Amino acid sequence: MSFRITALLIGLLLALAAAPASAAQGASAQTNWSVYRYPDLGFSFDAPQAPIRTEKTAPTSEGPGQEITFEVDAGTYGFFVKILDLRRMTDDNFNVDSWVDRIVKEPGEILTSSNAVTLDGLKGRDVVYHKQGDPMAQTLRVFYSDHIVYELFTTYPLSSRPAGVEKFQRSFGLMPWHWQLYTMPEVQPAGDLDKIPFSHWVVASPKTFASIEACRSEALNHSVANMGPQAYEYIRFSSAVCFDPDTKHVRSVEVIPQTYKTPPIDVTGVVADPFMR
User: Fold this and answer.
1) Using CA atoms, how far apart are residues 214 and 58, in angstroms rounded to an integer?
2) Distance between CA 84 and CA 143 in Å, rounded?
3) Which secondary-structure segment (H or E) carries 155?
4) What does the buried/exposed string (b/e) look like for 243-255 if buried means 16 or more CB atoms within 10 Å of the residue's CB?
5) What's this model's pTM, rounded to 2 decimal places?
6) What letter does residue 255 receive in the DSSP assignment?
7) Is 35 exposed, middle or buried (0-12, 13-18, 19+ CB in 10 A)?
8) Where are the chain's structural domains?
9) Angle between helices 4-18 and 21-28 (to 10 degrees)
10) What is the per-residue pLDDT across 130-183, written as a single tens digit (0 to 9) for each?
11) Element (H, E) at 276
12) What is 4-174's CATH topology?
């Protein structure tokens, strides 16, 4: 598997080898790291400079996804975080191990190590590998949560693993969502229920939820509890949405989407997730 950043870094290494020692030392001694947060995607990490962000559509066997990459050139090494947004998926069959194997088992790849890792309770996998004849080593760490694949990739000389690689990997963390359960007003409105503006919806639970699954579970409990003779109560909670006040995202509580479109509600002032689930 070829990566643009690998070719870039090989060129940089050759340039550094021809440069004075003081220049090489200056390029590698990057200590002014900062935290870069991406609440819309739910993660943050440290880097010595602002990451370069690129986006593209990525059709996969798991479903159509949006691929977002945050790349950092740190001089003698480089790393990037790649996010594959699979919220168009209609099932939960994503497998981290199979995903990693497809990368490290390509022809010419030599696997150095493979270990199970965890991040905030998520199970993931960490591998170190390199292509035969390539002077650069590569690491790949993959996690999966809420239909989003998180890939942490680094590349550096086989002869020396910079401390910045560990610093980057240790710094990566998930930023918990603060989902709240919203439903239609307590009093049944007149007219078409589907056309109630989102601004009129109300918070249905005092709890906040770090995952969309927990928010949906709360909606299901409400729905079951209110399946009495008053049909409106059931409709109200079965049509509930989960809203994150930090990112202004609104998500359907439906487990399997019937369509890939936003719900028939007025979400003016919030970001309507186009992949409603």
Assistant:
1) 28
2) 11
3) strand 148-157
4) bbeebebbbbbbe
5) 0.60
6) S
7) exposed
8) 4-174, 180-272
9) 140
10) 999 999 999 999 998 767 889 999 999 999 999 999 999 999 988 777 888 888
11) none
12) Protein Transport Mog1p; Chain A (3.40.1000)
